[in-house]
Amino acid sequence: MGVCNTLTSEIRRALVVRGGWDGHQPVTISDSFVPFLKEQGFTVETSEDLAVYDDAERLAATDLVVQCWTMGTITPQQRDNLAAAVRGGTGLAGWHGGIVDSFHDHGYHLLTGGKFVTHPPGYLDHTYQLSPEHADHPIIADLDDFAIHSEQYWVLTDARIDVLATTTFPADDLHDRPAAMPAVWTRTHGAGRVFVSTIGHKPDDFDVPQVRTLTERGLLWASR
């Protein structure tokens, strides 16, 4: 299972914004993708301060923002600068709480297309089903459904996303039927692309080949 893009001589700029709650190991996990991005022709900068979102010109000149920030506070200006950059063509991508549990801000949620609500206690075995209607999408093409032992996210999403994978919550004492929950999706925002995966609570989640591959492909798909 390889990535969807081949090595390119074109130099692109990636900005990795990481921090917030340490339980998601934002530095460790994001660092694991830096060599891949460099191999794909990106120059990679990292920031552990949300003040980087105050620099609208820097964001507009960036081809890909990889966000790995959980439970932080973004200012309206920072949010608007990020949204404007994406609208102009900057890609935005991330995984797990680093993108769907980043900020309690409605404008930010409208940019990403979804927000974290809850997850069952602890880690559990669960599966992810790839969407047949998007089987030829470059992020999931030629991949198979897969299982993982980790957190399973319950999220709220808007209608204007393309769902590439779902995970199913079973019926329980309070709910009379199972629910297929969006888990990996894409969307456009103006000229920009957004990639979101709810998978990736801990580093070894990315040892599952499908998780690593779809995340790498998602970063490339989102980039300008």
Descriptive terms for the model:
single chain, 224 residues, alpha/beta, 9-stranded mixed sheet, two-stranded antiparallel ribbon, 11 strands, globular, disordered N terminus, Class_I_gatase-like, ThuA-like, ThuA domain-containing protein
Care to describe what's here?
- Residues 2-8 have low confidence and may be disordered.
- The protein has a nine-stranded mixed β-sheet with strand order 2-1-3-4-11-10-9-6-7, with helices on both faces. A two-stranded antiparallel ribbon has the order 5-8.
- It has helices at 26-31, 34-39, 56-60, 76-87, 97-100, 106-112, 209-222; strands at 12-20, 42-47, 64-70, 91-95, 114-118, 124-130, 146-150, 154-157, 162-169, 179-189, 192-197.
- It contains seven helices and eleven strands.
- With 224 residues, the protein is of the alpha/beta class.
- A hairpin with a 2-residue loop joins strand 10 (179-189) and strand 11.
- Residues 13-222 form the ThuA-like domain.
